[in-house]
Amino acid sequence: MRPVRSDLAPRPGLSRDEMESLQRRVAEAAVFEDDLPFDPARVSLDSPERENETLTDATAPGGDADSPPLVAGIDQSFLDDRALSAVVVLRGGEVVERVHAVSDLDLPYIPGLLSFREGGPILDALAELDCDPDLLVFDGSGRIHFRQAGLATHLGVVCDAPSIGVAKSLLCGTPDEDVDGRPEGWRTPIRADDSVDPVGGHPAGPETTIGYAFQSRQYDSRPIVNPLYVSPGHRLSAATAVDLVSQLSGSYKLPEPTRLADAYADEAKAQYED
């Protein structure tokens, strides 16, 4: 998978002002409404029928008219000053490809500028794929971001691919309702507040839904599980983004694509630590 908008790709050596300016350009290019090459109803964890299907068929974008689209989960682990970026691609509940790349890190973690630390290494891993995923699911924010250009938005725009951000904490914005102790399946909109800048044609105000708090799992026998914060990255609406994350959720808090990518990142990391 190769960048389509290389001019917007995160790159080292930029000042903070230059990074924030590039994020505004990314946000201006982002599409926060549904523009999908597949029917969202086809996204699921059900394994497609494999009879008479070749590997080429399995990794072809979109598949046939009845098969689920290719969904890539993306996560990272870290080796001192290097990032190991892992990508796991699913069609339904079946893993069809796993790749990783190890890349140098050029920046420390700076809130709101995560894509400039992790984006380049993730693009290195995506370049290793033989397939072109229909949907990218990131461990990080999308539109829930100070300049509406979190990691999922930045790399979704660069790759011109539908993308979703799934974060474990809320970077900015305000939930409509209190999020504590909610039942499994519950969701509430995250509205833009004063911390979110209007960018290009994308407004920012209390009437603007930039994502959802989503209670993916809750267990009677365990302490309260906090919600996920789901936001559109690119070519998706907030409502469709949270619906897709719900459809991709299995028995764990994280959606299955990013859960498997997280596990694979740790598995691959072990080979570099021996």
TrEMBL record:
<dbReference type="GO" id="GO:0003727">
    <property type="term" value="F:single-stranded RNA binding"/>
</dbReference>
<feature type="binding site">
    <location>
        <position position="139"/>
    </location>
    <ligand>
        <name>Mg(2+)</name>
    </ligand>
</feature>
<keyword id="KW-0460">Magnesium</keyword>
<keyword id="KW-0255">Endonuclease</keyword>
<feature type="region of interest" description="Disordered">
    <location>
        <begin position="178"/>
        <end position="199"/>
    </location>
</feature>
<dbReference type="GO" id="GO:0043737">
    <property type="term" value="F:deoxyribonuclease V activity"/>
</dbReference>
<keyword id="KW-0479">Metal-binding</keyword>
<dbReference type="Pfam" id="PF04493">
    <property type="entry name" value="Endonuclease_5"/>
</dbReference>
<dbReference type="InterPro" id="IPR007581">
    <property type="entry name" value="Endonuclease-V"/>
</dbReference>
<keyword id="KW-0963">Cytoplasm</keyword>
<feature type="site" description="Interaction with target DNA">
    <location>
        <position position="109"/>
    </location>
</feature>
<dbReference type="GO" id="GO:0006281">
    <property type="term" value="P:DNA repair"/>
</dbReference>
<keyword id="KW-0227">DNA damage</keyword>
<dbReference type="GO" id="GO:0016891">
    <property type="term" value="F:RNA endonuclease activity producing 5'-phosphomonoesters, hydrolytic mechanism"/>
</dbReference>
<comment type="similarity">
    <text>Belongs to the endonuclease V family.</text>
</comment>
<keyword id="KW-0540">Nuclease</keyword>
<protein>
    <recommendedName>
        <fullName>Endonuclease V</fullName>
        <ecNumber>3.1.21.7</ecNumber>
    </recommendedName>
</protein>
<keyword id="KW-0378">Hydrolase</keyword>
<dbReference type="GO" id="GO:0000287">
    <property type="term" value="F:magnesium ion binding"/>
</dbReference>
<dbReference type="GO" id="GO:0005737">
    <property type="term" value="C:cytoplasm"/>
</dbReference>
<feature type="region of interest" description="Disordered">
    <location>
        <begin position="1"/>
        <end position="20"/>
    </location>
</feature>
<feature type="region of interest" description="Disordered">
    <location>
        <begin position="39"/>
        <end position="69"/>
    </location>
</feature>
<keyword id="KW-0234">DNA repair</keyword>
<feature type="binding site">
    <location>
        <position position="75"/>
    </location>
    <ligand>
        <name>Mg(2+)</name>
    </ligand>
</feature>
<feature type="compositionally biased region" description="Basic and acidic residues">
    <location>
        <begin position="180"/>
        <end position="194"/>
    </location>
</feature>
<comment type="function">
    <text>DNA repair enzyme involved in the repair of deaminated bases. Selectively cleaves double-stranded DNA at the second phosphodiester bond 3' to a deoxyinosine leaving behind the intact lesion on the nicked DNA.</text>
</comment>
